[in-house]
Amino acid sequence: MNMAERRDVDLLFKALADPGRRKLLDLLHAHDGRTLNELCEHMEMSRQGVTQHLDILEAANLVATVRRGREKLHFLNPVPLQEIYERWIAKFEKPRLKALADLKRRLEKHHG
Amino acid sequence: MARSSYVYVSYIRTTPEKLWAALTDPEFMKQYWFGMHCESAFTAGSPWKLVAGDGQVYDDGEILEADPPRRLVIRWRHQRRPELNAEGDSRCVIELEPNASAVKLTITHSVEREPSKLIEAVSGGWPKIVSNLKSLLETGAVAFTEAYPANQAR
Predict the structure, then answer these.
(1) What pTM, to 2 d.p., does this model score?
(2) What is the pLDDT of residues B88-115, one digit of tens each?
C-alpha cells in the first residue's frame, strides 16, 4: 500500500471514529440528499459543529455533495465502505455463500 | 422531493483519458462490470444499451450528452424486471474531474419518483462496479469477479 492510499484509509477511519459523524451517516443512510438545515434539525450541536463534521466526512469521501440551485445536498457515498468490505470481509463471505449453494444443491437433489 | 438519487464518488489514480476509455470500451468494461458491457457510439443522440455476457439486454436508452473525457449523460431504462421497467426513464450522469494526482469520478443516478425500486436496485451494484474499476485501473486486478457470488437470488 503506497503513501497516498494509506492516507485515504487514515482519513476514512478517523472520520468513522466519532459518534456525531456516524449519526450523520445514519441520517443520510435513512434519507439521502439532505441539506445542512435538514441535518441540523436532528443533531444536538451547533450548525458550525455539523458543518465541520460534514467537511471531515467529505474529505474521507464518505459524503458527496451536489449543488442543486442554491442548495447543497449531501449524499452518503458507500464506495469507500465497499472497499473496506472487499478488503477484510469478502473473503470470509465466499465460503459461506458456497456452503449455502452446496446445501441447496444437495437438498434439491434429495427431493428430485 | 419527488426524486430519488444516489451519488457515488471515487478518486481513481489515473488520467481522465484512461478513465473515459475504461468507461466506454466494451472489452475493458467486462472486466470490472461482472461480464456486462455497454454498447454505444457514446456520442450525443446515439442509442445505448447494457448487455450481459449471454447477450440479454438489461437496460437501454440513449446518450443525452457526451463530452469526452469529462461528462457523459445516459437516459437509462431497465428492461428485464417489469416493476423496474414500469418506473420509466432514469438519468445517469457520469462526471470526471482531474483532482491532484487522481481523477474524481462522480456517478449520479436519479429518477423522478420517490421511492424508486430502480434506484434501490442500482444502489447495490454501483459501489461494487466503481470499486472494481478503481482496483483495475490502479493495480491491474479486480476485487470481485462475480457481482452476486454463488447462486444468490437476484
Answers:
(1) 0.83
(2) 999 999 999 998 889 999 999 999 888 8
Which portions of chain B are predicted below pLDDT 70? 1-2, 143-154
Please choose, from the candidates B61, B10, B54, B8, the residue with its C-alpha nearest in 3D space to the C-alpha of residue B35.
B54
Distance of alpha carbon B57 from alpha carbon B117, whole angstroms:
19
Which parts of A1-112 are beta strand (E)? 63-68, 71-76
Q: How many CB atoms lie within 10 A of CB A78?
A: 23
Which one-letter amino acid corresponds to residue B100? A
Place of cell 431497465: B78
Integer Cα distance of A72 and B81 in angstroms: 34
Task: Say if the ipTM goes beyond 0.90.
Answer: no
For residue B109, the SS3 value is strand
Closest CA–CA distance from residue A37 to any residue of chain B (Å): 15
| Distance from C-alpha of B50 to C-alpha of A22, rounded to nearest angstrom | 36
Nearest-angstrom CA–CA distance, B144 and A26: 27
User: Nearest CA to CA, how far is B151 from chain A (Å)?
Assistant: 6
A-B contacts (CB, under 8 Å) = 62
- Maximum distance among all Cα pairs of chain A, rounded to whole angstroms: 65
Residue A83, pLDDT > 70, answer: yes
The closest of A84, A5, A6, A22 to A56, measured between CA atoms, is A22
**Is the CB of residue B104 less than 8 Å away from at least one CB of chain A?**
no
